[in-house]
Amino acid sequence: MPNIKIFSGSSHPDLSQKIADRLGLELGKVVTKKFSNQETCVEIGESVRGEDVYIVQSGCGEINDNLMELLIMINACKIASASRVTAVIPCFPYARQDKKDKVGSRAPISAKLVANMLSVAGADHIITMDLHASQIQGFFDIPVDNLYAEPAVLKWIKENINEWKNCTIVSPDAGGAKRCGGVTSIADRLNVDFALIHKERKKANEVDRMVLVGDVKDRVAILVDDMADTCGTICHAADKLVSAGATKVYAILTHGIFSGPAISRINSANFEAVVVTNTIPQEDKIKHCNKIQVIDISMILAEAIRRTHNGESVSYLFSHVPL
């Protein structure tokens, strides 16, 4: 593949390396350091003039530092005459702040701000995965490819859950039921039933009351969501499903953020397994929780990069896992 360079930010070097290996490329040389006042300094260590540049940086860990590093890397490549700069952002930062919650509230729409910052920095194209809200694509005036983990999730279910034909796919909230690549879509493609849990929140990150809509009695229940942060919702949901007669409960999440009390909650909850993709590094979490399993999605991102570089359609990846 001529005229292509892939650089890794510091948020998830393991995923960047897997993507580069898959494409048979070396990661580009980049040196990131911090000055003593905590300003980020990035030096691109090779020529990018006329190249098709891909910068892999996930919105995790020290989110604000990593976002700033991404913006600086995009700008550094752009003013070094790269022909096109694509930001590959497996987990999009600030995606939950995508709308004003209450009428007349003074809440920001931070996802739009991040979109503006990426455009102003010089990004020509964005590749991301399972956006929390599909309308975020409309916050950009540049092309956005929102890939889905769904094909990889279907493959995992069929290979790892023996009784998958007698399962119910459950959405832990009403929002996830209609999300693209979400619960109804997975239930349809497995040809199984689907249920949802209606929850009422008193305040953010705290759930007040849950109502199960659908039947899980004597079945395997598979909770599917796009992200889990403090895991209050999915752990509550697991208890609800067990009390409603589910034989086993799995959780499958695209972005396992697992902040705060998440790991201790998962350890004490009724899960057979909590399955996440590696859009966010999970090595440290796995050490403290043996229920966490990881689906590798590097091949989906690598194939999206290859197809974008060669000017091919990316929509094949919405329903297939590249071999």
UniProtKB/TrEMBL annotation:
<dbReference type="InterPro" id="IPR000842">
    <property type="entry name" value="PRib_PP_synth_CS"/>
</dbReference>
<keyword id="KW-0460">Magnesium</keyword>
<dbReference type="InterPro" id="IPR000836">
    <property type="entry name" value="PRTase_dom"/>
</dbReference>
<protein>
    <recommendedName>
        <fullName>Ribose-phosphate pyrophosphokinase 1</fullName>
        <ecNumber>2.7.6.1</ecNumber>
    </recommendedName>
</protein>
<dbReference type="GO" id="GO:0009156">
    <property type="term" value="P:ribonucleoside monophosphate biosynthetic process"/>
</dbReference>
<comment type="subunit">
    <text>Homodimer. The active form is probably a hexamer composed of 3 homodimers.</text>
</comment>
<keyword id="KW-0067">ATP-binding</keyword>
<dbReference type="InterPro" id="IPR029057">
    <property type="entry name" value="PRTase-like"/>
</dbReference>
<keyword id="KW-0808">Transferase</keyword>
<dbReference type="GO" id="GO:0004749">
    <property type="term" value="F:ribose phosphate diphosphokinase activity"/>
</dbReference>
<dbReference type="GO" id="GO:0006015">
    <property type="term" value="P:5-phosphoribose 1-diphosphate biosynthetic process"/>
</dbReference>
<comment type="similarity">
    <text>Belongs to the ribose-phosphate pyrophosphokinase family.</text>
</comment>
<dbReference type="Pfam" id="PF14572">
    <property type="entry name" value="Pribosyl_synth"/>
</dbReference>
<dbReference type="GO" id="GO:0002189">
    <property type="term" value="C:ribose phosphate diphosphokinase complex"/>
</dbReference>
<keyword id="KW-0479">Metal-binding</keyword>
<dbReference type="GO" id="GO:0016301">
    <property type="term" value="F:kinase activity"/>
</dbReference>
<keyword id="KW-0418">Kinase</keyword>
<comment type="pathway">
    <text>Metabolic intermediate biosynthesis; 5-phospho-alpha-D-ribose 1-diphosphate biosynthesis; 5-phospho-alpha-D-ribose 1-diphosphate from D-ribose 5-phosphate (route I): step 1/1.</text>
</comment>
<dbReference type="InterPro" id="IPR005946">
    <property type="entry name" value="Rib-P_diPkinase"/>
</dbReference>
<keyword id="KW-0545">Nucleotide biosynthesis</keyword>
<dbReference type="Pfam" id="PF13793">
    <property type="entry name" value="Pribosyltran_N"/>
</dbReference>
<dbReference type="GO" id="GO:0006164">
    <property type="term" value="P:purine nucleotide biosynthetic process"/>
</dbReference>
<keyword id="KW-0547">Nucleotide-binding</keyword>
<dbReference type="InterPro" id="IPR037515">
    <property type="entry name" value="Rib-P_diPkinase_bac"/>
</dbReference>
<dbReference type="GO" id="GO:0000287">
    <property type="term" value="F:magnesium ion binding"/>
</dbReference>
<dbReference type="GO" id="GO:0005524">
    <property type="term" value="F:ATP binding"/>
</dbReference>
<dbReference type="InterPro" id="IPR029099">
    <property type="entry name" value="Pribosyltran_N"/>
</dbReference>
<comment type="function">
    <text>Catalyzes the synthesis of phosphoribosylpyrophosphate (PRPP) that is essential for nucleotide synthesis.</text>
</comment>
<feature type="domain" description="Ribose-phosphate pyrophosphokinase N-terminal">
    <location>
        <begin position="4"/>
        <end position="122"/>
    </location>
</feature>
<dbReference type="GO" id="GO:0005737">
    <property type="term" value="C:cytoplasm"/>
</dbReference>
